[in-house]
Amino acid sequence: MNNQRLLVWIEGTLIAALAMALEYIPHSIGFVDISYGIIPLAVYSLRRGWRAGLGSGLVWGLLDLFLRGFGSGGFLNPLQGFIEYPIAFAAVGIIGIGAAPLQRALKLQQRGWLFGLALGATFLGVLVKYGFHFIAGVIYWGSYAPKGMSPVIYSLAINGGSAILNLILAGIVISVLLVTAPHLFRPKNG
């Protein structure tokens, strides 16, 4: 492995650790969760691309599974744990599909494209993450739905609410960072 690739993976590991640390900030509003870790992973994915983003998200998901999932009752069985932790968290790295076009827009100083690309890619990554949570919610958490409520509606309410709040928060922070600190989205090497 060359030094530049190693730097990218070390950076990704640090981002995963930061995302995990942010999970310890209180982040529940009723049954809806805000995941602050999406923000650094989105910046990293937009900086380094989808492969690096998927890898960093996978590490974050495994950390969350072992440090919080097993102890908080969020792990019901191996398949559910696999879907809701490593897979769903890795999916956030899909945001990195916007990295190359974003780098071009940064270089050419195309502000309109910057926001559209960054927000569109972030929307996709958050949507896919909560899509996995929604599926697991219907299959595995549906029995926790209030009496008479469909597991689909129950999962949609909880995971849809979480997705909307995370999209709003990530969108605002990414937009502010694009204006105030665009250098965060430009890799120095690798």
Automatic annotation (TrEMBL):
Ranges that cross the membrane: 31-46, 58-76, 82-102, 114-143, 163-185
A GO MF term: thiamine transmembrane transporter activity
Classification via InterPro entries: Thia_Transptr_ThiT
Superkingdom of origin organism: Bacteria
CC annotations in GO: plasma membrane
Pfam families tied to this protein: Thia_YuaJ (PF09515)
Signal peptide span: none
Keywords associated with the record: Membrane, Transmembrane, Transmembrane helix
NCBIfam families, alphabetized: ECF_ThiT_YuaJ
The protein's name in its UniProt record: Integral membrane protein
